[in-house]
Fold:
Amino acid sequence: MTDQVTPPIGLRQRKKQRTRDALTRAALELFVEQGYEDTTVDEIAEAVDVSQRTFFRYFANKEEVAFSVQELAEAYFYAAVLDRPAHEAPLVALRRAVSSAWESVDEAIREVVPLELHMRAYRMIESTPALLAVHLRRNAELEARFAQEIARREGVDLAADPRPRVLVAAFGGVMRVAAKVWSEGDDCTVAAIRDLTESYLDQLPPALADDWHRPRTASRGNIASPANPASPVSTASPNDPGPGRGRTTTVAGADGACRA
Structure:
């Protein structure tokens, strides 16, 4: 049987992709330099030496181009979740998907814009009220898609079982916090946001513990104390092999790589 070979991208398609990437980079550079509200579509088009009509062939409006790189990264993460084996517990699948997708996300972003520009654009979105509202809406929509996928994987009714939504909301909240801290730091590498995200996800089970004043170990392992030898909120770590759904293993990691 002959292996299928993906046909090479044609010259026309490559030129269209280059134009789209150039518009994205020019838009983000203008947004972070002079502000989103003060940047016009004409200025973005002029920076790439194309017409306004050409801009609208690729993007419906400024909002769409502002989030284009984030949408690209989200697509890689979502695809990574879809690729996880069915036997993995939900949180394990989410964590391993994120861990496995960073390299692909790094490469995909770098093909469009420098990572430092992506970081600055994230700060710009967080500080622009009109874009922040869109950002929150998009996060809610993305979490709904992830919850639907988790419900499908586990064979539960999303309308009757709140667990997929609760899990994804907690997981997504940690991801957003890590991304914000990363964007406010000095290290714009993907390695930095990957390590920071992993360390923040390590804190999810202990953060949900009933009593924060109970002593816990600083290294990876079960959160335990004389009064609470096995925490009921502990969950599987990404190092768990997966099939043993009944196992409860907590994780607590080191400090993050980025600092505000």
In short: Confidence is low (pLDDT under 50) at residues 1-6, 218-260. The CA atoms of residues 36 and 143 lie 26 Å apart. DSSP finds eleven helices and no strands in the chain. The first helix runs from residue 11 to 34.
